[in-house]
Amino acid sequence: MRGSAAAVLGACIALVVLVIVAFAVGRFPVSAADLASILWGRLTGVEHGLDPTIETVVLRIRGPRVAAALLIGAALAAAGAAYQNMFRNPLVSPDILGVSAGAAVGAVLGIFLSLNVIMIQSLAFAFGLGAVGLVYVTANAVRGHDPLLVLVLAGVVVGSLLGACVALMKYLADPYNQLPAITFWLLGSLASASPDDVWSTLPLMLLGLVPMWLLRWRINLLSLDDEEARALGVETGRIRLVVIAAATLMTSAAVAISGVIGWIGLVIPHFARLLVGPDFSRLLAVSILLGAGFLLGVDTLARTVARIEIPLGVLTAFVGTPLFLWQLATARRGWQ
Amino acid sequence: MRLEARQLDFGYRDKRVGSGVSLSLEAGEVLCLLGPNGSGKTTLFKTMLGLLPPQGGTVLVDDVDLRSRAREEVARLVSYVPQAHAAFFPFTVEEVVLMGRTAHLSLFSSPSRRDREATLAAITRMQIGHLAESVYTRISGGERQLTLIARALAQDARIIVMDEPTANLDFGNQVRVLQHILALAQSGIGVLLSTHDPDHAFICADRVAMLHEGKLARMGVPEDAITAASLRELYGVSVEVTQIETNSGVRRTACFPLLQRQPGMTR
User: Looking at domain A2-330, does it have CATH number 3.20.20.60?
Assistant: First the structure.
């Protein structure tokens, strides 16, 4: 227990440091003192006497981007933690049931039809939810097998069908105009995150997070054998449906504004489990802290290390893969 | 309290495993189910726990149909000790036992201090206090079995169903588990268990039920039900069943398998 308190404290401090660093680097560096006085001025109405350009950078450009990174990182990690517990497998990630594939189809369709940004995001969100709904209904129609296995298989099948749809639209898209936009979206980016994005996503994230937090003890028991959990008094079918819905909501809300960002939902809960053990209430809290910090760190790298922005999905894979392999090689405490 | 199967047909929709089984168990009683591999013991147990729907007949707790009760309510009445298994995530022994309290928690709550106290009491009763902080996935099979029994105790049900609690345990752990079963019954808990060793029935059971190809072949007190003839029918082997008295004066009936000896074999 003392170890997990230290882990939470450490993750909180790291998160604050990352936020300060994220503001301090880039084309318009904002010092911690300037950041504090702008935020303080915003809260109390006191005049800070700084260059209005800096205020615009903080409130309109970098602030929303930092907030979106924190929010999306937290959401993807929380959804991953829930999915890993539920599917009793530490190698499962939020896109296992086809959320990302569905959202990708929605967004690519929006770009293909030259719709505006809000419509593209709405389509991504709707298709993400729709894909998981389809997977869930398909899995329920197939009876007489292990329900979890059927769910995962249905996810794989629906995911590859949706992948084919994306490929088809890429093939048909205008190669000068639409194809770059599609590719950019599929690789994930927070470059265009606006304050509106943050404010429209926040309630969806909370809507997903609240049931997950409320059901945290019962979610622990979902990691047992299905019959065992029921013998202990858990209505596994219903709880699983609620958790899938909550995790899907969070993931598709995240994917709708950032594009497809892999690895966070897989790697972060795994690390969190190493730090604080498998108990879901602690796992969820630490996953959220680590996920938020990880994506903020990666996004800061993405916009600073090179002359052009590096796509987030590429960078999370480059950072996440070696971390994960190193983890697998050095410790096995996370699961067996 | 009383758990009863009445003319129970059990199995799966496309595969009937057994039929017409009627048996009942009172709190404070030990009922031992014997039967060869594949005779349907586990399926019968799962049906009696409400984990599988009956294919015919009913399961009753205190004369109320199990199906009319909510999952949590059933869990407060009857608990289940599955065969010791591998867990997926490294929960500590204490956390595993704490999961037994779930049926006493409302949907959104986490275990309170009272639940932790009940958990510690169950752990102490099973004499595994030294394991409380150990990781469940890293302890031995015998220790896992004791942990799962502690979890069933924490669940605080009057009847515990144990699926082969002595399987895969070494001699010492088998005796330890049987000792605990006896103590549970003396404290007023009913235990329904399955085993592969008829001697275990002689040691701890009040009654024995024999399941043969999905049907109840025999039921009664161990000394009446377990005979050379019934064991031959059940397992297809020759066994002698004799009452013996040990040097220290303990009388007990026991089974002695008779092996065929080829001419020329030295033993």
Answer: no
